[in-house]
Write a structure and sequence with these properties.
This protein is mostly helical. The chain has six helices and no strands. The radius of gyration is 24 Å and the shape is elongated.
Length: 102
């Protein structure tokens, strides 16, 4: 006959679940200025790793901020503007040259 080896007073992982919320890191909301800085730095070609070092945020939070705020088009636009300033072209011309599939 089978006799369980787990004592009847065993509560499972209840204690672990209760303590799980106590160890959470505080959430730091993104300000408009911080998001603008993120767009500028990504537009200049900085990596998420370098931006994380500069801002004190994690790479994961940077990627999440870009994704949740849908900043991809703004970052691309800043890249076109930076390239156009270097090449003395209009941003739309830089975009057209980059997107040309020749």
């Amino acid at each position: 006959m089978f006799k369980p080896k787990i004592p009847t007073e065993f509560k499972g992982c209840v204690k672990l679940v209760k303590n799980k919320d106590a160890n959470k890191t505080p959430v730091h909301m993104w300000t408009t200025k911080e998001l603008g800085n993120l767009v500028e730095l990504r537009g200049l070609g900085f990596t998420y790793k370098n931006i994380a070092k500069l801002t004190g945020r994690t790479q994961t939070s940077l990627v999440a901020a870009v994704d949740s705020n849908n900043l991809y088009s703004k970052i691309d636009q800043r890249r076109y503007e930076h390239a156009s300033a270097v090449l003395n072209l209009e941003p739309y011309a830089v975009k057209r040259l980059l997107l040309d599939k020749r």
